[in-house]
Every structure is written in C-alpha cells, then in structure tokens.
C-alpha cells in the first residue's frame, strides 16, 4: 500500500433512492491512495448502485462523495477523466479486433496517436497478445476479454480504477491471473476499487467493506474482520454477519 495517509475517495451519508425504495442508505467510508479496496456484498446489496454514483454516472439522492479530488455531483466530468472503469457487463466491441479496440478506447480517453501506438505495443507485449492482436474480440475466451478490458481501463493511467465484478464467470486460474494484474497496478500507486460477491477475493484486498441491504455493516482489513468475528475465512465473516443482522 502507498500513501495511506492520503484519502482519494471520501464518502459521507451517500444515499440513492428509486421512488420509495432506498438502494443505498447513507453510507460513509474513505479509500486511501494506492489501496486495494474491496466493496463486498451479495448480489442486490447495493454495490453497483453505489459505484455508479462514485464514477459520476448516477446522481446521489442525498449525501456527498469526493473522488480523485472532485465532487461527484458537481464535477462528474472531472471524475470521469481521472478514473478507469470496467463494467460488470463486458464492454469491449466484439466486432473489432483487439488492436482496434485499444485504439478506439485510447481515442475516447484523449490519448494522442503516438501515445496510443506506444501503449498498444506495451499492452500487447505485457498480456502476450501478439498472436491474437488482429483477432476479433468476440472470438476470444472470456478470461482474455476480462484481462483486455482491465488493461484498456488503465490506458490513460487513471488515479483510480473501478472494477465491477471483474472476475464473474471465469475459472479460478484466470481469476488468480486477473488479481496479479490488479496487484501490478496497485504497486504502481493506482488505487483499486473492486466490487465482488466472491468472498475469497476479499483476502486479496488491503481493506474491505461488506454491504448488506444498502448499508455498510462491516469495514476493516480481512485479518481484523476475521479476528473480530472469530472465524478463519472471509466467507465465514459474511455468513456470520448476515446471521447477526437477521
């Protein structure tokens, strides 16, 4: 972890309502610069709704959030310029080649042609994509698509990258490889904000929050949470927490 005294995400009483339903109920937390922060919870807990507010694509009903030094409500475009985002649903274009996708998204991120060419070569070499660079993304296995999507989200060297269920549907070996990519970026000082419902992945995070029905019910390091609940795995923490709430 790096620069842990510097808060790069600050959330205060963040709330999101849809009619009479409150999806996110006044949550409070912060994320330190260079931290891998796990945003955990079962499907439907409110994780994705909260993330959409943090990346500036959904306005809070109440409360405030500051991301990379910018207010999500009044400076959403600045927020978007300083973050990377990998959505739960695969976001590359299946009918474009690997290289064409990199070029396209590099242009969206405002990179020059020279920067795009340079970063494309580095990315293809790093991910060992040389043999498939001219293949259409739609023809690639899911694991390769996920790794490519993550790398493209990092093209413009954002301060923070938001990953929404990035390893959903891939095998355990590919999941581990994906986390190696995350570690490499965090080592460079990038802040990683990752949502997942795989509780074993919480072990890879510096700190985790656990969200239940729109509320953050626990937040600490995996080690401290396991000690607090007197269990040996994060999955047991989650199960015990759910039983306590019931």
Automatic annotation (TrEMBL):
Q: What are the residue boundaries of the ABC transporter domain, all occurrences included? A: 9-238
Q: Which SMART domains match?
A: AAA (SM00382)
Write out the entry's keywords from A to Z. ATP-binding, Membrane, Nucleotide-binding, Transmembrane, Transmembrane helix, Transport
Tell me the domain of life. Answer: Bacteria
Topology in membrane? Multi-pass membrane protein
Cite the InterPro entries for this sequence: AAA+_ATPase, ABC_transporter-like_ATP-bd, P-loop_NTPase
Q: Where in the cell is it found?
A: Membrane
Task: List, alphabetically, the GO terms of the cellular component aspect.
Answer: membrane
Which GO terms of the molecular function aspect are on file?
ATP binding; ATP hydrolysis activity
Task: Tell me yes or no: is Disulfide bond among this UniProt entry's keywords.
Answer: no
Q: Does the keyword ATP-binding apply?
A: yes
Name of the molecule in the record: ABC transporter ATP-binding protein
Organism, by scientific name, is Flavobacterium piscinae
